[in-house]
UniProtKB/TrEMBL annotation, chain A:
<dbReference type="GO" id="GO:0016887">
    <property type="term" value="F:ATP hydrolysis activity"/>
</dbReference>
<dbReference type="InterPro" id="IPR052156">
    <property type="entry name" value="BCAA_Transport_ATP-bd_LivF"/>
</dbReference>
<dbReference type="InterPro" id="IPR017871">
    <property type="entry name" value="ABC_transporter-like_CS"/>
</dbReference>
<dbReference type="Pfam" id="PF00005">
    <property type="entry name" value="ABC_tran"/>
</dbReference>
<keyword id="KW-0547">Nucleotide-binding</keyword>
<keyword id="KW-0067">ATP-binding</keyword>
<dbReference type="InterPro" id="IPR003439">
    <property type="entry name" value="ABC_transporter-like_ATP-bd"/>
</dbReference>
<dbReference type="InterPro" id="IPR003593">
    <property type="entry name" value="AAA+_ATPase"/>
</dbReference>
<keyword id="KW-0029">Amino-acid transport</keyword>
From TrEMBL, chain B:
<dbReference type="GO" id="GO:0006865">
    <property type="term" value="P:amino acid transport"/>
</dbReference>
<dbReference type="GO" id="GO:0022857">
    <property type="term" value="F:transmembrane transporter activity"/>
</dbReference>
<keyword id="KW-0813">Transport</keyword>
<keyword id="KW-0472">Membrane</keyword>
<dbReference type="InterPro" id="IPR052157">
    <property type="entry name" value="BCAA_transport_permease"/>
</dbReference>
<comment type="similarity">
    <text>Belongs to the binding-protein-dependent transport system permease family. LivHM subfamily.</text>
</comment>
<keyword id="KW-0812">Transmembrane</keyword>
<feature type="transmembrane region" description="Helical">
    <location>
        <begin position="140"/>
        <end position="167"/>
    </location>
</feature>
<feature type="transmembrane region" description="Helical">
    <location>
        <begin position="196"/>
        <end position="221"/>
    </location>
</feature>
Length: 234, 298
């Protein structure tokens, strides 16, 4: 679903990513782990075309994405759950859920179905659907952010540190949901700082270190390799 | 002052206040979504007033003239965004943080001069919009008020109501709130951020245009009338708290009424006192009468 080939990304004069390549196949959950400042968020922002790579190519669903505006990529099914959740505080939970699906051009029936599905996935959202998004707890907001993305019927889901600032049991709930989505055929790219939890959940993993892919492999293998954890910490 | 005088001043004040509210709504919506506003908002109002005078005196029926003004203002709003706002956004940090003040005020100067070329410098009155003659007086509860003023008040409130529906009821209003909160995140939910920016500038121009059409029969219209309307709209938006649409409505009505009474007591400096009051208010309450610090409040 996503093919990244040798991309270099710079913000201003500062190089952030160097020669990064990765593949994301349908139904796979791939994680990118790395320390703060390794370039994880920039990688996702590049995939969503918020920043453009200086060189290299990105393909989504077989087609190069260069020049496609972020909102059109999102409508086409490359959906990015940004860091910090970014729930619109002045809109209700329900409006937050519907806002993306509405833009993606889904009809009312599909949106209603989507709401049923997401309310079943995270029942707390159903209870709180008429509350303003800004009044949710961090964990509820993260569930809302994931559900808002799923409402858009994505082919690929990009997640930027969904664990940030959340209690451990909420993190487990979210990661379990992501695992289930991948098992149902969705392609998931999970960027995380909580390396062990991410490796437990993912099929494949890449370790990003100062903008380069330092290590890649099946998540279970990297999980056993102490060098991974150490290079990640170092 | 007799009781009759009091009610007539009140009605005149509400009519002008409703117009200030409409003009200030335009400032509010672009400020909400983009943190920018049109420093030529009053000049857009002036263009709306002249366009309406031009068409009405040429014999165009009022509904068609209003439609014509709306189309013209929509185009002007688009052009303003395209040439005074978008190039600065492209420059990013290389454009100064407040460059848009200069570009929008510059666009206003261009408009003033174009209108002066076409209509001359002298002041004009628009023909009444809703009645045949200017002095068509109706009686409400024994108080005689100008029919024109009453109709202007009703129209302005209908427009304000439509604006609320747009902001809180329509999908576009929700998109405006999402962009106001975080443009980058909004684009990730599939919202066309640039489209929303164009939309709010077009809306702001429409609000100014409608204000211009409505104000034409009430005040003298001349090519350089815009600045004082920009200042008053800014004052009203500041009293209302800039981010609080209900506050702006109340602020606008208060300001209009205060001005009507102030002009009754002192015809030479009547316009001054409400503005002094706003200054004093902002010194005590910088976020306005109804303002909140958060930009995302309803």
């Amino acid at each position: 679903m996503i093919e990244v080939d040798h991309i270099d990304v710079a913000i201003g004069p500062v190089g952030i990513l160097h020669d990064v390549s990765l593949r994301l196949a349908p139904g796979r959950l791939v994680t990118v782990i790395g320390a703060n400042g390794a370039g994880k968020t920039t990688l996702l922002r590049t995939l969503s075309n918020i920043v453009s790579p200086r060189s290299g190519t990105i393909r989504f669903d077989g087609r190069p994405t260069a020049g496609i505006k972020p909102h059109l990529l999102a409508r086409a099914g490359l959906v990015h759950v940004p860091q910090g959740r970014q729930i619109v505080p002045g809109l209700t939970v329900r409006d937050n859920l519907v806002i993306g699906a509405d833009r993606a051009g889904l009809d009312a029936g599909t949106i209603a179905e989507g709401l049923e599905r997401e309310f079943a996935r995270f029942p707390v959202l159903k209870e709180r659907q008429h509350i303003l998004g800004g009044n949710l707890s961090g964990g509820e907001q993260q569930m809302l952010a994931v559900s808002r993305a799923l409402m858009m019927r994505p082919k690929v889901l990009l997640l930027d540190e969904p664990s940030l600032g959340l209690a451990p049991q909420v993190v487990t709930t979210i990661l379990k949901a992501l695992r289930g989505l991948a098992d149902d055929g969705l392609s998931v790219l999970l960027v995380e700082q909580l390396a062990l939890l991410a490796l437990d959940t993912a099929d494949e993993a890449h370790v990003l270190q100062r903008g380069r892919v330092a290590l890649s492999g099946p998540a279970a293998e990297l999980r056993r390799d102490r060098a991974v954890i150490e290079s990640y910490l170092g | 002052m007799t009781l009759l005088n009091f009610f007539q001043l009140l009605v005149s004040g509400i009519a002008m206040g409703a117009i200030y509210t409409l003009t200030a709504k335009g400032l509010f919506i672009t400020h909400l979504a983009t943190h920018r506003l049109n420093f030529g908002q009053g000049d857009f109002l002036m263009v709306g007033a002249f366009a309406s005078i031009g068409m009405l005196t040429a014999g165009v029926p009022a509904p068609l003239a209003v439609l014509g003004v709306l189309v013209l203002m929509g185009v002007l709003g688009y052009l303003l965004e395209r040439f005074a706002i978008r190039p600065l956004d492209r420059l990013g940090d290389r454009a100064g943080a407040y460059s848009w003040v200069l570009t929008t005020a510059g666009a206003a100067l261009i408009l003033q001069n174009i209108v002066e070329l076409g209509f001359g410098k002298s002041a004009q009155y628009a023909p009444p919009l809703f009645s045949k003659t200017r002095d068509n007086v109706i009686s409400i509860l024994g108080v005689g008020i100008f029919f024109e003023e009453a109709a202007i008040i009703i129209t302005a409130f209908i427009v304000v109501g439509a604006f609320y529906w747009f902001l809180f009821g329509s999908r576009w209003g929700k998109a405006v709130y999402a962009v106001a909160f975080n443009p980058e995140a909004a684009s990730l939910f599939g919202i066309d951020v640039r489209g929303v920016v164009v939309l709010v500038f077009v809306l702001a121009a429409l609000m100014a245009g409608i204000s211009g059409v409505l104000v034409g029969p009430l005040v003298s219209v001349h090519p350089h009338m815009g600045l004082i309307f920009t200042i008053k709209a800014l004052a009203v938006a500041a009293v209302g708290g800039f981010t609080n649409p209900v506050g702006i409505l109340l602020g606008g009505l208060l300001f209009g009424v205060a001005e009507a009474f102030s002009n009754y007591w002192d015809s030479a400096f009547g316009d001054l006192y409400p503005l002094l009051f706003v200054m004093a208010l902002l010194a005590v309450r910088p976020s306005g009468l109804f303002g909140e610090r958060r930009a995302d409040v309803r």
